[in-house]
Every structure is written in structure tokens, then in C-alpha cells.
Design brief:
The complex is a heterodimer of chains A (281) and B (342).
Chain A lengths: L1 H6 L8 H22 L1 H22 L11 H18 L1 H14 L2 H6 L7 H27 L8 H28 L3 H9 L2 H6 L12 H9 L1 H13 L10 H4 L1 H25 L4
Chain B lengths: L4 E10 L2 E11 L4 E5 L6 H8 L7 E6 L2 E2 L4 H7 E4 L11 H11 L4 H14 L15 H12 L6 E5 L7 H16 L3 E6 L2 H7 L2 E6 L2 E6 L1 H7 L3 E7 L5 H11 L5 E3 L4 E6 L2 H14 L4 E7 L3 H9 L19 H14 L1
Parallel strand pairs in B: 3-8, 3-9, 6-7, 7-8
Antiparallel strand pairs in B: 1-2, 1-4, 4-5, 9-10, 11-13, 11-14, 12-13
Helix pairs in contact in B: 3-4, 3-5, 8-11, 9-10
Classes of the chains: A mainly alpha (281), B alpha/beta (342).
The complex binds adenosine-5'-diphosphate and magnesium ion.
Chain lengths: 281, 342
């Protein structure tokens, strides 16, 4: 038997965290190469939020009351944080579809047969999605500036807002990862990753002032993790939409946003990694 | 002392399907075991259990001297897996695919790059190395997938239906690659639905059906179980058939079968090549011109039939799997054998 064990390539065991980071980056690089070779995916990912910017600002613009005014310029500034936030959550579908496709194509089996860090396949994918989200956000911010969106705070606060958006987007891709591992086809992962995002992003303060909602909807909207990030961004951008609500997340939106995102990451990462280890195509 | 791949009493159920129903395997180091069985027999499930992808409900497995259930991480360092469907990233080039796998086997980026180059040469993919794998043909993808399984030259390899869906030329090519590989001392477990393939590549064959090993042995041993050899003659002139039949009757151990339209005569014999030479001499003496003559031993198709009482029919088509598992040789074999059953 010794002949067999001697022949086993057994590289010195690197420290597990180092290996985990390295493996995740290898997988992230792979996913980024993939994405760069399917540019139409990135383009479609941009068209929708840009369309929302234009449609919401010009169609709803004059009929929305924000802070007592129906001025469409005010609504446009109010709106942008909501659209930014909604856009970053759409990464959920991309992550889910990507992982479902890897399962379907047998790549997950290959990865699982390799001596690589647990969770690196999923972390790599979510990191790549984070890069894509950041790019989408950049383009969207430029479009927003073109239609008249402005910030009224310092650079640090504006960057902080984008940081919160990216963190939430990253957290949501872990939900996508879990969905991707749970369904049978990439198509199912795409719809499964998107459908629930509509209620989550619309029953919120993203597009309308939640103070004007019926009480029960308002409570949901105010405690919606998504609303916390939107509210935090409005504050950090200095955009209109100051909440008069006494709900804790609305009074401390930055903290609420951080806590919600961290919780989502911890919970869904744990579930997804566990699912990955027993995944069967 | 267990071999490089050892399994004992593996059981795996999916709902009420008993995919593995007590499988024992023992593959000595440096040999090739062919796991032969129809679609749905449990081949993939067995491979997945041995390669740490699936936890069996019961049983024990040792691969490269390491307990699979206790130390899956260590097992992964010592195995290469080429799964039933080529697992390559279509949007990555062949080179990028191999580099990635090398790095995930914990090679440095530089070493992974060098190794990728070597494998691309070895597998005849150098020209296509920098094209995305989605431009590759089925055979090229398979080779790339196999190369990925060989990145660290693992001592133990698993290949799940490596040539399913390939045309005969690509299959032949892949067989050469596999033969070369095992001549280097790698222990290989190979699953196949192609009886010919197991015959060609494997030292030992385990026939599986309904999650059980129903027979094992060398290809010769299995063939011997289905009865002896026979001489087949194709004569040139139809009018010589009667005389030829008379000659064969003299040598045969049973009834001579005659196929008029193909001018083919078959008779069961014992005595092997020596007897064959005598038959040829006798036919020659009588002035019978022959197109073809040979000593035929039973094929593995015959083996399967005699073992199970049914032909190697496909089970349920694999769930969700793309149609790539449609097996030309399988259905060909089936049609031929259906007639034998009646
Ligand atoms: N993940 C799974 N879930 C449910 N049934 C499965 C699963 N994998 C395999 N099976 C069933 O187990 C049996 C054996 O399948 P498999 O090992 O794939 O056979 P083979 O590879 O020999 O074609 C089949 O009946 C198949 O449908
Ligand atoms: Mg199979």
C-alpha cells in the first residue's frame, strides 16, 4: 500500500484561510473571464435600470409627492437611491443562474472532486458578481447625473453610500447562490432569483414615500432590509426623502443597512455552503 | 490488503430507487476495472460515492489507501475524475480551463500554466488551446475534460462513460490516450455501456445491473461463461456451401448454422487456433474458395444476455441530463440481440 500513498501528490497544507482566499480568487477570475466573453449579459443588465431611470423620472416624475412637493426634479433625486438599490439586488439572479448552470454542466462535480477550499466556488462567483455590480452601478450613476441627479454631501459620504449598496448586492448574491443550488435549471434560477425581488423592492421606500402607504404596508416597508439601504443612501447623498417614521431602521438607516446585509451574508452563506457540499446535479 | 480502489457493501438509495444495492469492488494497483452496465445500473452513483461527491448510506470505501468517508479531502488530492458529461467551462479557452483546475489542485499559477501547456500538447489540443471550449467538437471537449482530470497525474483515476456520444474515430483516439495513461501505472476505474470498450481497455470487468455486481472476471473468463468458441466461414461461391457445411460438420461440436444470403456458416468448436488451421487446410483440399474465416469468441453482449436473461436495455433516461447519453452503439447492440432472445 505504501507505494500508492507515496505517489500521492500532497502539497504542504497551506493555511486554510490563505487557501480559501486563493481558491476564491481563482474561481472569481474564471467567472470574470466568462462574463467578459458574454458582454450581452452585461449590456442587458444595464438596459433595465437605465430604462427605469428614464421611465420613472419622466413618467411618474410630475405626479409623485415627495416632502410636500410634486416637483419632478425633487422626485428624480429621491428616486435614484431606490433604482441604485434595486439594480444591485438584480445580481441575485445572475449568481443563481451561473451556479445552476455550473451544476447542470457538471462543473460543480468537478470542483467538488478537487482538493479546494469549501465555499470557494460560491465565494468566487459572488465576488465576480460584485465586480459586475460595481460596473453596472458606475454606468448607472453616470446616467443618473445626466438626467439631473446630484448629491449634496461630501465625497466620503457618497462613497459610503455606494459601499452600502455594494454590500447589499453582495449579500443578495448569496441568496442567489442558494437558489442556484436548489433548482434544476439556469432558467429556473433566473426567474427564482427575480420574482421575489419585485415585492421586496416595491413594498419599500424605493419609488414612493412610505409615509404615504396604508399602515400595514408602511410597517413592512419600513422594516424591509431593502428600505434601510435606500434610506441610508438618501441620507448619505443628501437627497430628498427624509423619513418622519419612528421605526428603528428608518431612524438609523446606515446601521440598519450594515446589520441587515451582514445577517443575510452569514445566514445565506452558511446555508449555501452546506447545500453545496451535498449538491447533486 | 485492499487495492487502490476498494469498496465494500456500498448502498445508496434515492427515495425508493436503490441505485447501489451492496456493491463490492477491489481494483489492484495499476490495473483497470471496467464497470459495465446498462443505463440506470448504478455506475455513476458508484463513481460519485468513490470520488467523495456522494455519501453512501452504508458501506465502506478506500481509495489510494485513504478512507473515503473519513478523509474525503485527502482522497481528493489523489484522484482525477472525468465525469459522465464533459465538465469544462465553455467560455474559457482550453488553456484557461486547465490552468484553473491546476490552481485548484493547489499548484502555483506558474506550475499550473506549464502543466496546462504539456497536457494540451499531449492531448492534441495545442492548436485549439486559446479558443473558447465552446468551439470544440465533442471529442475535443472530452479530451480536454480528461486532461483536466490528469492535471496532477493522480495515482487513481475515475472515468464515467468517457466515450459515450463520440463517433468511432474519436472513440478510437480516446482509447489510445487511455491505454497510454494506464501503461504508466495509473489505477483506473472506467464505466461504460460499450461492451467492446470494456473488452478493449479493462483488465477486469465487473458487470453491474440494478445496483449490484452480477458478475466479475477478466473478459475471457466472462466470455467463457457464455459457452465456447465457434468457427465462422464465409465462402465465395454459393454452390460451395453444402460441401463447406459437410467439412465443418466433421470438426464441429454441435449443429452448423447456415446463412444463405451472406454465404456464412457457423459451427461451435473446441481446439482454438490449431483447429482453425485444420479447417482451412481441409477446405483448401476440397477446392472451396473462402472470403473470410475466423475463430469467434462470444462478445460481451452475449455475456450480458446470458447473465441477466435480458439484453442490456436502457433504464430510465437520466433525469435532467442532456440527450448526450443517447448511445448509438447501445441501441445497435440491442437491436441485434433482441432477435437472439426470441
Ligand atoms: N440524484 C438522484 N436522484 C434520484 N435518483 C437518482 C439520482 N441519481 C441516480 N438516480 C437513480 O439511480 C439509478 C442509478 O443511476 P446511475 O448511477 O446514474 O446509473 P448509470 O450511471 O449506470 O446509468 C437510476 O435509477 C437513477 O434514476
Ligand atoms: Mg451514468
Amino acid at each position: 500500500m505504501s507505494a500508492v500513498t507515496d505517489a500521492v501528490p500532497r502539497p504542504a497544507r497551506p493555511n486554510p484561510i490563505g487557501q480559501s482566499v486563493r481558491d476564491s480568487l481563482v474561481v472569481a477570475k474564471r467567472n470574470l473571464i466568462r462574463m467578459s466573453r458574454i458582454p450581452e449579459m452585461i449590456i442587458f443588465g444595464l438596459i433595465q435600470p437605465i430604462m427605469f431611470v428614464v421611465l420613472f423620472s419622466y413618467v411618474f416624475g410630475g405626479s409623485m409627492t415627495i416632502g410636500g412637493t410634486t416637483d419632478s426634479g425633487v422626485y428624480r433625486e429621491f428616486l435614484m437611491a431606490g433604482i441604485f438599490a434595486q439594480t444591485v439586488t438584480f445580481a441575485t439572479a445572475g449568481a443563481g443562474a451561473g451556479i445552476a448552470e455550473d451544476m447542470h454542466k457538471g462543473l460543480i462535480d468537478r470542483f467538488r472532486s478537487l482538493p479546494m477550499a469549501r465555499g470557494a466556488v460560491l465565494t468566487g462567483r459572488t465576488l465576480a458578481d460584485l465586480v459586475q455590480t460595481a460596473l453596472t452601478l458606475l454606468v448607472l450613476a453616470i446616467v443618473a447625473l445626466l438626467v439631473g441627479w446630484r448629491t449634496h454631501t461630501n465625497v466620503g459620504e457618497v462613497l459610503g453610500a455606494f459601499g452600502l449598496l455594494l454590500l447589499m448586492g453582495y449579500a443578495f448574491t448569496w441568496i442567489g447562490a442558494l437558489i442556484g443550488l436548489s433548482v434544476r435549471t439556469p432558467e429556473a434560477a433566473t426567474s427564482g432569483g427575480l420574482i421575489w425581488l419585485f415585492p421586496v423592492t416595491f413594498v419599500s421606500n424605493a419609488f414612493v414615500d412610505s409615509d404615504q402607504m396604508t399602515p400595514w404596508l408602511r410597517h413592512i416597508a419600513e422594516w424591509n432590509p431593502f428600505s434601510a439601504t435606500v434610506q441610508a443612501c438618501r441620507e448619505l447623498f443628501g437627497n430628498p426623502g427624509v423619513s418622519t417614521s419612528g421605526a428603528w431602521p428608518m431612524e438609523h438607516p446606515v446601521w440598519a443597512s450594515l446589520i441587515y446585509s451582514a445577517l443575510i451574508i452569514v445566514i445565506f452563506r452558511t446555508l449555501a455552503v452546506r447545500k453545496y457540499r451535498s449538491a447533486t446535479a | 490488503m485492499p487495492g487502490a480502489i476498494y469498496a465494500e457493501g456500498l448502498v445508496k438509495t434515492f427515495g425508493d430507487v436503490r441505485a447501489l444495492d451492496g456493491v463490492d469492488l477491489d481494483v489492484p494497483e495499476g490495473t483497470v476495472l471496467g464497470l459495465l452496465g446498462p443505463n440506470g445500473a448504478g455506475k455513476t452513483t458508484a463513481v460519485r460515492c468513490l470520488t467523495t461527491l456522494l455519501r453512501p448510506d452504508r458501506g465502506r470505501a478506500v481509495v489510494a489507501g485513504i478512507d473515503v468517508l473519513a478523509h474525503p479531502d485527502q482522497v481528493r488530492r489523489s484522484i482525477g475524475l472525468s465525469g459522465q458529461f464533459a465538465a469544462v467551462d465553455e467560455y474559457l479557452t482550453g488553456r484557461e480551463n486547465l490552468q484553473m483546475v491546476g490552481q485548484l489542485y493547489q499548484m502555483t499559477a506558474k506550475a499550473a500554466k506549464a502543466r496546462a501547456g504539456e497536457l494540451l500538447d499531449q492531448f492534441n489540443l495545442a492548436d485549439a488551446a486559446d479558443r473558447p471550449a465552446k468551439t470544440y467538437s465533442g471529442g475535443m471537449r472530452r479530451r480536454l475534460d480528461l486532461a483536466a482530470a490528469l492535471v496532477v497525474s493522480p495515482p487513481v483515476m475515475f472515468m464515467d462513460e468517457p466515450t459515450t456520444g463520440l463517433d468511432p474515430r474519436n472513440r478510437q483516439q480516446l482509447w489510445e490516450v487511455i491505454k497510454q495513461l494506464v501503461s504508466g501505472g495509473t489505477t483506473l476505474l472506467l464505466t461504460t455501456q460499450y461492451l467492446e470498450e470494456a473488452d478493449h481497455l479493462a483488465h477486469d470487468i465487473a458487470v453491474v445491473d440494478h445496483g449490484r455486481v452480477i458478475a466479475r472476471g477478466t473478459s475471457d473468463q466472462l466470455k467463457a461463461r457464455t459457452g465456447g468458441e465457434r468457427v465462422e466461414v464465409v465462402v465465395h461461391e454459393r454452390e460451395h456451401m453444402a460441401t463447406a457445411a459437410e467439412v465443418l460438420r466433421g470438426f464441429g461440436k454441435g449443429d452448423t448454422t447456415v446463412e444463405e444470403h451472406t454465404r456464412k456458416l457457423t459451427v461451435p468448436v473446441t481446439g482454438g487456433a490449431k483447429l482453425l488451421a485444420e479447417v482451412i487446410r481441409e477446405l483448401d483440399t476440397r477446392g472451396i474458395e473462402i472470403d473470410d474465416i475466423g475463430l469467434r469468441r462470444p462478445t460481451l453482449d452475449d455475456v450480458f444476455l446470458s447473465l441477466t436473461g435480458h439484453v442490456a436495455e436502457a433504464g430510465d433516461e437520466e433525469d435532467g441530463a442532456d440527450g448526450a447519453s443517447g448511445t448509438p452503439a447501445d441501441s445497435r447492440g440491442r437491436k441485434r440481440k433482441k432477435e437472439t432472445v426470441k
